[in-house]
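Bit of a strange request maybe. I'm writing a small parser for structure token strings and I need a real example to test against, not something I typed by hand. Could someone generate the tokens for this chain?
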Amino acid sequence: MAAKTAGEPMSGKLEAEVELHCSPAKFYDVFRNTAHHMPNHSPTHIQAVQVHEGDWDCHDTVKFWIYTCEGKLEVFKERVEYDDAKRTVKLNGLEGDVMKLYKVYNVIYEFVAKEDDNGEGKQQGVAKLTIEYEKLKPDVPL
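Reply from user aminoacidic:
Good idea to test on real output. This should exercise your parser:
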């Protein structure tokens, strides 16, 4: 068993929230039903996404992403889980560049509604992002 770097755990969770300027249902729909359009929405960061097993909008589908991270072309293969009631998408890492550093790398998006403060009743929301990880070695950066 490898020694841990002092103060930095080998596994854990990173969490963040991003305010959405549209309904969380609409944002969830992009991930759930139209992920194949993501390269059109963000071509600088996402070059391609392909179905490896299953269908685009099905639970347990395996998808293969080609993306750019810090100027470098990388790949990520995932198995996706959907929870329509909670508007949650979980991407379970299987293979790719990030899996060379992590034993576990799961990304969870939860799209939550909130009422607009201006009293118009317009529904906006928050995207809650959670990354569950387990490093292969203690010196792997977060």
